[in-house]
Design goal:
The complex is a heterodimer of chains A (265) and B (203). Chain A folds into 2 domains: 216 residues, Alpha-Beta Plaits (2-Layer Sandwich); 31 residues. In chain A, 29% of the residues lie in helices and 18% in strands. Chain A is built from 8 helices and 10 strands. Chain A has a 4-stranded mixed sheet with strand order 8-1-10-9. In chain A, strands 2-3 form a two-stranded antiparallel ribbon. In chain A, a hairpin with a 2-residue loop joins β2 and β3. The termini of chain A are far apart. By secondary structure, chain B is mostly helical. Chain B has a single domain, classed as Up-down Bundle (Fumarate Reductase Cytochrome B subunit), CATH 1.20.950.20. In chain B, 73% of the residues lie in helices and 3% in strands. The longest helix of chain B is centred in the C-terminal third of the chain and has 32 residues. The chains are: A alpha+beta (265), B mainly alpha (203). At the A-B interface, α3, β6, α7 and α8 of A face α1, α3, α7 and α9 of B.
Chain lengths: 265, 203
Amino acid sequence: MAVTTVAKLVDTSLCIGCKACEVACQEWNDQEFTLGVFNNTYQTQPDLSPSFWNLIKFNEHVDDGVNSWLMAKYQCMHCADAGCIKACPAPGAIVQLPNGIVDFKQDNCIGCGYCITGCPFDVPRLSPTSKKVYKCSLCSDRVGAGMTPACIRTCPTNCLTFGSRTDLVQLASIRTAELKEDGFMDAGVYDGPGVGGTNVLYVLKHASEPEKYGLPKDPRIPWTVSLWKGPLKWVANAAFLGTALGAMLHYLKFGPQERHDDDTD
Amino acid sequence: MTTQIERFSFAERVSHWTSALCFLYAAFTGLALWSPRLFWLSGVFGGGETVRAWHPWAGLIFSVALGVMFKRWAGQMQLDQDDQVWLAKSHLYAQHIEAGIPESGRFNAGQKMMFWLQSASAFFLLLSGLVIWFPEVAPRSARLIAILLHPVCASVSMGGIIVHFYMSTLAVPGALSAMVHGTVSRGWARSHHGKWFREVDGR
């Protein structure tokens, strides 16, 4: 039986910003929490870090003079066509499990940081101490043991749901329809078709403006990364082999230049 | 017996071979970081983490050594009228047909082109390399350019070095010895670099 692709659904309209998922993530993954920067928001810290893989972003939004927060759970999106894997030179450092989880294996990581450049969502973080890159694993250890990822297990509002991707796509469209009934006509699903679909799905009230949530409008693997890891390889390989072959043929046809060690003038 | 004349000073040879060794290290470790298929090369040089840590330093030392050569040679590497003719007839040079090819100064036009090719690619390799070295500091837009620019310049430079390596070892006997021992025979100097020979020979 084929392995089911798992996914996480984030219904941003239900997030109350309690940050329980952040705590659960830190606890399960045994991460130390160090106080970051206070930048006049309710966010725990401004950004992800090597030891902080799941951040609730409190995006401040003003609509007709009414202030609101557009909550967005910021973590690895577990792309089907993952830019980090495309960019990574070290075999086995980033693996895509049969269930769709993109997992970093720090034992094989060499700390080059190419994955950071390859990621369209700017998620991986390089640790200055261990020189390894870290990010959300979708609790692959828990999922492998039949459990739910820590963040989802702890969410009190059903904002987060875990399950098969197919089921969650359906649930997302149901939630979208409900939001539209409630008057949020711009509601929709964010699932990154440009990267072959993400295994983290969002229901957004303002689906046509994902930037408001801090999400890229049309996430794709950067074209320089695709070119670098695609056609450029073949051009360069052909150039190397062509040059070496040319040198060999030249030597066989014309041989070396004549020596002129005699001094007859 | 022939009298030897100095072709490359001690400082020139030290900077050349420093850059050569760093280049070889950076080229092979660079290939390891270039593709998962070539990652096995990192094992030859102490493993992926070691390679990731040392490749930038090798590049930095290479840049310094090349900088020394650039400072010494840039003036002598300007192409003159004769060099233009030489380049136009380089296909004859390659076939060892020397009639009608102008005599060269200390460096022939081919060597001058190699010098500018290596200098330019090294400059961009250094810039892009610094960006790739510190991904957590460099801005994303710079990184996106650098990850493309670095291998493009490396390919150009490595392709050039294959030619350089072939010319200096197999194709032109005496060239390698000149860079190792620093001297060439008078006959070698006259036939390969006639203008330069008359300058240094002084008679």
